[in-house]
Specification:
Blueprint: E1 3-7, H1 14-23, E2 28-31, H2 48-57, E3 61-64, H3 72-85, H4 97-106, H5 114-120, E4 125-128, H6 139-150, E5 153-157
Parallel strand pairs: 1-4, 1-5, 2-3, 2-4
Length: 163
């Protein structure tokens, strides 16, 4: 069975991020971020150009799947729920139910994952976004759909210090 991994940026530094990908034998990174940058110098390594250069050095292919990125409106919906719960983007532990429902209906249900599944083929691919925990990120919804419709196993890569 082919496996799809998921990975976030938060909690990693450049080296531990690349080590996690290597340990999972990832050879294709699928970036599902709307904006391919991360605020703060701590995560400058994850901005698209720097990240792509680091991945290339490691022999890992990269592509941006913008069609799977949440819209600004959906991101704002999640931010309002984070504020209501007193959580920050970097400390979020779960997606708002309304966000999950709308992301699925408005984006995931309209994307033909068939070509993506075929393209992944025998690769070990990873879905990339920023949140540390997959449960707090739309990449978990994509991974669940790939499990259901594509027969993929799913492995969530987390920083060593994450629970």
């Amino acid at each position: 069975m082919a496996t799809i991994a998921t990975i976030g940026v938060y909690g990693f530094d450049r080296d531990t991020f690349l080590e996690a990908l290597a340990a999972a034998e990832v050879d294709l990174l699928l970036d599902v971020r709307q904006r391919r940058g991360v605020r703060g110098s701590e995560y400058a390594w994850a901005n698209a150009r720097r990240l792509q250069a680091a991945l290339e050095e490691e022999g890992i292919a990269y592509t941006h799947l913008k069609e799977l990125a949440p819209t600004t409106e959906l991101r704002q919906l999640q931010y309002r729920e984070d504020a209501r719960l007193g959580e920050g983007k970097r400390s979020r532990t779960a997606l708002a139910p309304e966000y999950s429902r709308r992301y699925t209906e408005e984006i995931l249900d309209h994307v033909d994952l068939g070509p993506i599944v075929k393209w992944i083929g025998e690769s070990t691919a990873a879905l990339l976004c920023v949140e540390r925990d997959p449960e707090a990120c739309h990449r978990s919804l994509i991974a669940a759909r790939l499990r259901r419709d594509g027969g993929f196993g799913v492995e969530h890569l987390r920083p060593q210090n994450a629970a």
